[in-house]
Each structure stands twice: as structure tokens, then as C-alpha cells.
Amino acid sequence: MNPQIAMLVIGRLGVALVTLLIVSAVVFAATEMLPGDIVEILLGQAATPEAVAGLREAMHLDEPSVLRYWRWIIGLLSGDLGTSYANDLPIAEMIGDRLTNTLRLAAVTGGVAVPLALTLGITTAMFRGSTYDRVVTTCVVSVISVPEFMIATLAVLVFAVWLNWLPALSFSSGTPGWGEMLRIFAMPVITLCCVITAQMIRMTRAAVIETLRMPYIEMALLKGASRWRIVMRHALPNAIGPIVNAVALSLSYLLGGVIIVETIFNYPGVAKLMVDAVATRDLPLIQSCAMVFCIGYLVLITLADILAIVSNPRLRK
Amino acid sequence: MANLVEIRDLKVRAQSDSGRLIEIIRGVSFEAAEGEVVALIGESGSGKSTIALTLMGHTRAGCEIIGGQVRLAGRDLVAMSEAERRRLRGTDVAYVPQSAAAAFNPAQRLIDQVVEVSRIHGLMPRQAARARAVELFRALALPEPETIGERYPHQVSGGQLQRLAAAMALIGAPRLMIFDEPTTALDVTTQIEVLRAFKQVMKQGGMAGLYVSHDLAVVAQVADRIVVLKDGAVQETGTTDDIINRPQHPYTKELIAAFRPVSHATVASPAAAAEAPILEVRNLVAGYGRPGPDGMPRVRALDDVSCRLERGRNLGVIGESGSGKSTLARAIAGLLPPVSGEVLLGGQALAPDVARRAKEDLRRMQICFQLADTALNPLRSVSDIIGRPLTFFHGQRGRAREARVEELLEMVRLPRAMKHRLPLELSGGQKQRVNLARALAANPEIVLCDEITSALDTVVAAAILELLDELQRELDLSYVFISHDLSTVQAICDEVMVMYGGRTVETLQASALPEGATQDYSRLLFASVPQLDTGWLDGLPERLPGT
Amino acid sequence: MAMSFSSLRLLGYRINVVAILASLFILFWAAMALFGTSFAPHSPGKVVDFDYYGPISAEFPLGTDYLGRDILSRILMGASYTVGISLAAVCLACASGVALGMAAAVTGGWIDVVLSRFLDALSSIPSKLFGLVMVAAIGSSTPVLILVLAVIYTPGSYRFARALAVNINTMDFVAVARARGEGTFYLITQEILPNIAGPVLADMGLRFVFIVLLLSGLSFLGLGVQPPYADWGSLVKENIGALAFGAPAVIAPCIAIASLTISVNLLIDNLPTKIRDRSA
């Protein structure tokens, strides 16, 4: 790797770290704004002034927020995410299992959506203006124009209510076998795939079309190259950066989608945990879940940027 | 024997942004014999590139051939299927684009792109193609012919890229080569090498050529015959010698006339020289990027530049791209505050940053930019554009302001009614006049002109120069005139400063140009300017001074 | 291009059928947001049917909900919440984003760096998550929703406007104005803003769609508009039980959302290129 690329990559990692710091401060500050005294809520009927003061001290709530932020960050770094207000369990433990579930859902979705979207995005750009392009583009606009819960609702309506192929809920009870697993995963994955694929097709198509406008594409045409050769050898190698970016940005919609999908299908992932935590106002749990999502997103975006830097032909020696 | 190229009554229609259909090529006919080089000459919008592309069987998006024939070796490209045209491209007819820098795929090594034609059409084995490419690199006088192909496009210079593009076109041994303004984007000193290389390989290969250009002097060096185009129609066709020495059509005569250099007559009175110079630049250093530990910017665009401008006289600044001439204008205007050195206006030192200069000082010196398209806010009417400095500097409003705007329009020879127009509705020359009128609105003493005629067609540019001359006499102005073009500078300036790499090479009296040059670089620069003379390129010495 | 297929020629003007249809839908919902409740056949909060999840009938054109309230009336009420909150939020987000973006582009230097870094960091918090945390933290009332949605979409608007303004800022006419000695306020309002207005408006439309979607999503999670009021997202949430019967109670509000968002997207896609990307 040449030093110029190395410098750019290191710079990008630095930016990611600074961003993470700002994000953590924002998340901390937001949860600080929770109305009402959390201690009084926790103690409920038993809220005598002495009990409140004691608990406040135990929870370090009497300290200035900067100090608590510092404590929190140190905890995050050492893997100590604190304990849940609601049920006194260590948060790291609560998130652990759930995270595997969410990651599994995300991985399956990504595995289906990325190849599908790249194929559709590139081919629609190649045959821009054709009937095929128009049909796909119209579907894409329709899907990205509606909320995720609508896609989920529609999927339930079609596959569970009308066709009766799949169960409407995930994880009913007991340990599921392989066939059962497939059926359980199917609905959330279908919903998420629809959302993600549409976003990705739109961005990939735009990136390839942008590249196809370049003068070197016309030059390739004037050399007698076929459409296939033009796209494969001249357009795609130059569109890698934008395409990777499009994929990363679309995968971020996955996070938003996961929140809705896990809630609708009652899927035991981190997002469901967080939505429940919001309902019970479980402050440390909300903070930790939020940080998990932000870190996931940042990792994706940073990876995409680094890939774009490395694939930039102008930095090659 | 039949002609290699025969274009008969070609008509091309284009769709404008607003969806209107316009016929941009209106019944063009011409031919070229085997081995003959024909030039298509015309100004921007004359349709010359569109015609050249139809010979590749290609029209750009939004354009459509609606009539006529384009015959190459007897076969009509218009009637052919796309697959048949594809087979001709690269093998029978090849293309050298205007900007090779944009026409090379940045992600591929040069050699792979140069030999691509032979791979697409299965012309020869890979090794043979590579060997042929190296041969062509050598013939085109490219440095390190064996290894230059291993580089990426961003690693070689513009002039080299243009020759590599020619190699890319020659690899398929086409019968016809199309050159689409191949040297327009190059500096004059680079242009010479490229032109020589082109001429050499064309002569050796005995192939026919279609050379598209707006520059008569360049065309005179390479073409056997010239087709003069205007607004999508042929004005005149003839041998190069006839067109240049005995033009028949009035439009051709106008083109030729605009090319003849005009000398500038000094208007300043001798007494003026005794005064302090109106503008003086002392040891200016400026650049871009964050300053380093020594307080100097990372990229030093101006390095210790000094010059002076006497009242009523004009200073020309000439140099190639990257010489720092435009940076000089920006530094004088305070848009790029210099790190050291001084700008003195009428003997008084100015603050480096425009934000710290007095309004009165700002008024006395105005700046005019090259591209009138970007120099005028597209959403303001002409009246607003010219009126703003009137309000800003002189507090004029309402009727008084309108009256003054009309006066200024008349001063730049534009009709009063034009004040209601938007820049979009004006031609290039008209925009540049509005641009000037805005500068004049401040009642300046100095106007900094940054390449203001470079983007204009020759005839239009000549008229602007004439206007500058007249305005100077009427308004007692002094110009700093920045240009890359020697004849332009000669036409308007008293003194000429030659710049190279951010430094002053020398300052010469315009009357002594070009023979008075004492430095190698200036001599090379002046010798490289193409002359309207068919024998100029061949008559040049093999090695120019300074190379 | 889909031009030939979606456009007609009339008296020499090109009429884009899709754009006109889309504008009609948008106008319709705008009118409903303003005056919808006065057209409502029933009071939106009143139980008018003994049956729940009632089918389409003459009396209840879109059926009834889980309590037996008239769905049509509730959708008309929801229109003012969905459209009103989203519109207010998008105006707030774009106004602040564009103002900050232009200021950053024109002044440059450390102001630009700090603003860009901070807002980029904000935008790297996924929007739905941000909404969730904020609404959970401050509670959910109409002004809070507007504010939260505006904060979430300000960074995107800032980034978009800044990129456009940076382009315009390099233009010679801005340099001429600078050389004349014009102040920052003049540069921003007179030279730059008019030249980015077209794309900024198109971007505002897109952002409006995002906000409608996010608001609906939050309401669907029970964190948006609170009962007794309801926007379209809450209507879907309330009546999600109707899914099993395929009743109109859950389908109708979905169609309302889709018709609005798809129309806005189609209108923007069919705007003349001149307005959409006048970036140079």
C-alpha cells in the first residue's frame, strides 16, 4: 500500500473516532433529558426522601453530568455497560444474545439483498429507458416511498393471511428446527430485503449512470466496444467507490428497518429490546442499545469510505 | 477512384434542454479522397464535432440524423445497423478526442487501453499488439516508449496523453482518422510537439484525416483542404492555400482578418511617466494550501513577482497554464491575500485582504474574469448586474441608476433594451460586454482583465479588443491584461511580462515583440505561436530555443 | 428517458402527465389537511358503529375501526397531523440547514470545519434510532415531534445546501462581488441563494417524504402522535388487528400514506432537469 493511501485511511479512521465521541455525547445528553426524576419513578410508592437520596447516591445521580458521562464512557470501553433499571440484570448480558439474533437477521438480509440489488441496479442503468428499466424503477420508487411497516403489513397480508404459507410472528415457543427456522426468518427477511434492495437499486443505478456519462465511455464506444464490454471494463471499475458507498448507506436503512420489523414480528433482537426499554424508560439500556446501533452504522460507513479510497484508481502507483 | 469519405446533404436534429427541436446540421456535403487531410473549421456551435462524429456512426444523446448520407468507402453509415457500425469503429475509422485526459479510463493502464481496439476486433495477438503500440509510441516521440504504457492516465502529462490517444486510434490501422480539436486544450509549446508527431505518422501511414478545429493557423499546418462551417452549413470549401490566401466567402474573409495581428498604439502622454505608477506590485508571494512552518503556503503559485503599471498604459501578463498569471490577478485584487510583498495603488500600499481595503480603493480597481458565463449571476437581469456597483459605490438608486445603466450599455456598444435580459439570453460576446460594463460602473482607474477574450470566437474577441482600446481613450483607463495568447497581448499592451512557474521571466516592450525576447523561455513561447502560413510548422528548426 | 411515454404535447408545450397527476394528489391532501375535518361525515372520535372493523358501506365509505369509529373521518383528521407536522418539520429543517450550509460555504475556515464535523456526526446516528431516543427522552407532543424531526433532518439539508453553495461560491460572479467589497450577508442572500433555490426545493420535497415516513414509523411504534389524536401511522397501529381479516381499517391509512409519498417522489422525479439540478 502506498503512503498516500495509508494516510487517507488513517485520517478516515480518526474522523470515525471523533464522530463516535460526538455521537456518544449526543446519546448521553439526550437520555439526560428524560423528564421526571428517575429515582422517584423507580421507587414508586416507597419513595421516602431518605430512600430517594440513598438511591441517588448509589446511582451516582448526584454527581455532575460530565463526571457521569466520563464514568459511562470508561465503562463502555471496558465492556461494563451497567445494569438495567428495570430488572437489575447486567446490560452486557441482556444485549449479548439479542445482538446475535439481530446480526443473524441482518446477515441473511444482506446476503440476499446485496447481490440482487447490484444485479438489478447495474442492468437497469445499462438498459436505461427500456421497459425493464421502467418497471423496476417504478417498483423501486413505490417501495422507498412507503414506510417499512407497510411493507411488513403487506407481507403478512399476502403470505400469512391470504396464502397462509408463513406464520405472522417469529419465535413462538420451543427450540425450532431448520425448517421452522426458515419459516420464522422468512417474513422479517422478505420485508427488510424489499426495503434495502429498493434503496440499493436506486443508488447503484444512479452511480452507474453517472459513470456512463463520462467521456471515456464515449471513447470506448468509438473504439467499437460492445455495450457489455463498456459496462464491465470501463464503467464498473470506476463506479466501485460510489457503489460501495450506496451499499453502505442502504445497509444503514437496515438499522431503521430492523427497529420496525423486530417490533412487528416480535423478533427477539436488540431493536426490540430497545423499543421495550423506551417503553419502560430504562435509561442505561437505551444508551447501550443506541451505542450498539451507532457503532454498527459507523463501522459500515467507515468501511465503505476506506474501500472507496483503496479502489480510487488515481491513487494507484 | 471514388472518394473515401462522401457526405451528402447531411441533416442532424437536436433537442434542446427545453425540449425544442432544432436542426443543427443543415444539409452539409463534402468529401475526402484516400490519403487526404480535410479540415472542418468553424466557431463554437457551428456543428463541426457533430459532423465528425457521424463519420464514426455516432450521434451524442439528444441528436438524431434526419437526412442525407455519410459514406465511408462506399458504405452508408446512416443506413447501417449498429452492429455493422461497431465493426467499423476503430478499424476503418478512428477517433482522437479533444480532451485525452477525459477520454482515458482512469482505472486502466494506458497500454491496455491503447491495444483495446485490437482485442475488441481480434486484429492481432496480444504480444503483437503490444509491440505495435510501443512502435507507435516511438513514432509519436513519446518518452520511454517501452514502459510508458504501464502507467495510469493521471501519471502522464496532457501533451503525452494526446499523443497516446493518437496511438490508441492508430493501432487498428484505420483508413480514416478523425481529430476532434486535438490540441485545443494544450499550451502552445506542447501543441507544437503534438502537431509534429501527428503530421509525421499521418504522412507515413498515408491515411486520410478529418481535422476539426477552430484555429485556422493550426489547420493551415496539417490540412490539404478546408471546409468552412457556420451554423451547421458549409460556407466555403477549398484548398488550404486558397482559403488562407484567397478567401472568397465574406465569412471566411472575416475569420482571416480577425487573425491578422494588430499593434497597439500608446495613448499615454509622455508626462505621465514622471508620476508614480498607478499600480505597483513588489515582491509578491502567494499560494494555496495551509502555510508550512516557514509561513509559506504549501503550493507557491507566485514567487517574488514584481511589476508596475503607469497611468494610461497597459501591462500584459503572458504565460502558459500554471504560470501563475491568474493567481497574480487574484492576489492584486485581494481575493487571494499574498503572504508577503506589497500591492501599491497610486503609491499607497493596499491591505492584502480585500475585506480590509477601503471602499474607495476597491472602486479604483476592478476585475473582469475569463468566462462570462460564470462571471455573471445567471438569475440577475443585466440592469441589476450593472446597477449593483452603482448603488454600492455611488449610492445611485431608482431612475438615476437606470439612466446610468443605459449609458454604460451604450458605452460597451449594446442596445439599451438589453438591460431587461438575463445573461442566459445573451451571446458570449454580449456577456463579456456586460461584464466590462459592470467593471466600468465603478468608474475605475484600473481594470484587471483575466483572459477575457480567451473563451470567445476569434471574430468576437477581436471586437472586444477594439472596444477595450476605445474605452481606454474615452475613460483614461489602465489595463492589466492577462492572457496566454501572444497576439491578443500584442494588440492591447504597451509592456508585456512573461511568466513561467510563478516567476517573472522578463518584461518586454510590446513593440519589440517577438524578436526582442532575451530569455530562452520567452523565445520558445513566442516561436511556438502558430502562424497563418502553411509552411510555418515545417519551417521551424528541429530544436526550438529552450527545449 | 420516460419522456415520450409520460408526456403530451399541447400547443407546443410539453405537458408531463405524471407530474400533473402527482401535483393533483398533493393538492388534494394539502386541502384535506387544511379543511378535511369539515368534510368528515362523522366526528372522528365518536363510536358510530356497533360492529368493529366494519366493511365498506354507504354510511362508512372506508369501514370502521377497532372501536367502531368511522375510518374516513379519522383519515381526514390524520391528514392534518401527518401533513402538518411533516411540513412544519421540513420547513424548520431546511431553513436551518440551508442557512447554516450557505454560511459555512461562504465563510469557510474553522466555522465550516466545526459545523460540518458536528452535523456529520449527528447524521451518523440512524434517524429512526435518534427519533426513538429523543421522543423517549422528552416525551411526545406535537411541538416536540416537530422539533425532533427537524433536528434529525437538518444535517442532511445542511450537507446538501453546503455542497451546492460551495460550487456557486467558486463562480466568478461571487469573486467579482467579493472583490467589490460586498459583505457576507449580501453574498448569501443575493448571489448564492437564488442560484441554489431550485435544487434546494426539490431536496425539501424528498426530505418531506422521509419525514412523513419517519413520523408514521414513530407513530406506528406508539411514540408519535398520541391518542385521542391520531396521524396515519397511529391509525395503522390502532387497527393492526384488522390485518387478519384484511379489513379496510388498516389498508385505508396505508393507502393514504402511500398516495402522498409516492406523489411527492414522482413529482420531483418529473420536474424539469433545469430546476432539479442547477448545481453549476
UniProtKB/TrEMBL annotation, chain A:
<keyword id="KW-0813">Transport</keyword>
<feature type="transmembrane region" description="Helical">
    <location>
        <begin position="139"/>
        <end position="162"/>
    </location>
</feature>
<dbReference type="Pfam" id="PF19300">
    <property type="entry name" value="BPD_transp_1_N"/>
</dbReference>
<dbReference type="InterPro" id="IPR035906">
    <property type="entry name" value="MetI-like_sf"/>
</dbReference>
<keyword id="KW-1133">Transmembrane helix</keyword>
<dbReference type="Pfam" id="PF00528">
    <property type="entry name" value="BPD_transp_1"/>
</dbReference>
<feature type="transmembrane region" description="Helical">
    <location>
        <begin position="105"/>
        <end position="127"/>
    </location>
</feature>
<keyword id="KW-0812">Transmembrane</keyword>
<feature type="domain" description="ABC transmembrane type-1">
    <location>
        <begin position="99"/>
        <end position="304"/>
    </location>
</feature>
<dbReference type="InterPro" id="IPR000515">
    <property type="entry name" value="MetI-like"/>
</dbReference>
<keyword id="KW-0472">Membrane</keyword>
<feature type="transmembrane region" description="Helical">
    <location>
        <begin position="285"/>
        <end position="310"/>
    </location>
</feature>
<feature type="transmembrane region" description="Helical">
    <location>
        <begin position="239"/>
        <end position="265"/>
    </location>
</feature>
<comment type="similarity">
    <text>Belongs to the binding-protein-dependent transport system permease family.</text>
</comment>
<dbReference type="InterPro" id="IPR045621">
    <property type="entry name" value="BPD_transp_1_N"/>
</dbReference>
From TrEMBL, chain B:
<comment type="similarity">
    <text>Belongs to the ABC transporter superfamily.</text>
</comment>
<keyword id="KW-0547">Nucleotide-binding</keyword>
<dbReference type="Pfam" id="PF00005">
    <property type="entry name" value="ABC_tran"/>
</dbReference>
<dbReference type="InterPro" id="IPR003439">
    <property type="entry name" value="ABC_transporter-like_ATP-bd"/>
</dbReference>
<dbReference type="Pfam" id="PF08352">
    <property type="entry name" value="oligo_HPY"/>
</dbReference>
<protein>
    <submittedName>
        <fullName>ABC transporter ATP-binding protein</fullName>
    </submittedName>
</protein>
<dbReference type="InterPro" id="IPR050319">
    <property type="entry name" value="ABC_transp_ATP-bind"/>
</dbReference>
<dbReference type="InterPro" id="IPR027417">
    <property type="entry name" value="P-loop_NTPase"/>
</dbReference>
<dbReference type="GO" id="GO:0005524">
    <property type="term" value="F:ATP binding"/>
</dbReference>
<keyword id="KW-0813">Transport</keyword>
<dbReference type="InterPro" id="IPR013563">
    <property type="entry name" value="Oligopep_ABC_C"/>
</dbReference>
<feature type="domain" description="ABC transporter">
    <location>
        <begin position="279"/>
        <end position="526"/>
    </location>
</feature>
<dbReference type="InterPro" id="IPR003593">
    <property type="entry name" value="AAA+_ATPase"/>
</dbReference>
<feature type="domain" description="ABC transporter">
    <location>
        <begin position="5"/>
        <end position="256"/>
    </location>
</feature>
<keyword id="KW-0067">ATP-binding</keyword>
From TrEMBL, chain C:
<dbReference type="InterPro" id="IPR050366">
    <property type="entry name" value="BP-dependent_transpt_permease"/>
</dbReference>
<dbReference type="InterPro" id="IPR000515">
    <property type="entry name" value="MetI-like"/>
</dbReference>
<feature type="transmembrane region" description="Helical">
    <location>
        <begin position="245"/>
        <end position="268"/>
    </location>
</feature>
<keyword id="KW-0813">Transport</keyword>
<dbReference type="Pfam" id="PF00528">
    <property type="entry name" value="BPD_transp_1"/>
</dbReference>
<comment type="similarity">
    <text>Belongs to the binding-protein-dependent transport system permease family.</text>
</comment>
<keyword id="KW-1133">Transmembrane helix</keyword>
<keyword id="KW-1003">Cell membrane</keyword>
<protein>
    <submittedName>
        <fullName>ABC transporter permease</fullName>
    </submittedName>
</protein>
<feature type="domain" description="ABC transmembrane type-1">
    <location>
        <begin position="79"/>
        <end position="268"/>
    </location>
</feature>
<feature type="transmembrane region" description="Helical">
    <location>
        <begin position="12"/>
        <end position="36"/>
    </location>
</feature>
<feature type="transmembrane region" description="Helical">
    <location>
        <begin position="131"/>
        <end position="153"/>
    </location>
</feature>
<feature type="transmembrane region" description="Helical">
    <location>
        <begin position="205"/>
        <end position="225"/>
    </location>
</feature>
<keyword id="KW-0812">Transmembrane</keyword>
<keyword id="KW-0472">Membrane</keyword>
